[in-house]
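Course assignment 3, question 2. Fill in each field.
Student: A.L.
Task: Predict the tertiary structure for the chain below.
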Amino acid sequence: MKALQPQIDAINARYKRKGLNMDPAHSRKISGVYKQHQTSPLAGCIPALAPLAVLVAFYSVLTEIAELHGAHWLWIADLSKPELLPVRILPLLMILTQLLVAKITPTPTGADPRMARLMTLMSLVFGIVLYQQPSALMLYWLTSNLLQLGQQWWLGKRYA
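Answer field:
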């Protein structure tokens, strides 16, 4: 995709967008570049589906597993249900750790600055969407974020 970026930038420079409206000729030219090089802009999204599949499988296990019903951990009375606190701590910690991971993860040179804003927005969206989910799922996600945070910190320290 990086090799195609100069061609796509040249096409984008020729066709000025007006808001969300895109000239059909603009779309055809960009599609032609993708066809000419036998690539797809959605090919980069396929690896992102693997964590989603794990999340869906984990969620279905959490809702059905009998061992979690009534199981408590620290302040959480039942891991199969959301926290009973007026303000749930786990989703807030998940948002915070996801924002920290996004902040310390290095961005490739030449990357679109909108991607950093998208990562911030996605952290907030995940927090809102997952706010009512079982505590075990939030604990899993929080643990994953903490491991990612430690990994990024270690890699940054070692290779910086």
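Instructor remarks: The chain is about 60% helix and 0% strand. The helical segments are 5-14, 24-36, 49-64, 89-104, 113-129, 135-159.
Grade: pending
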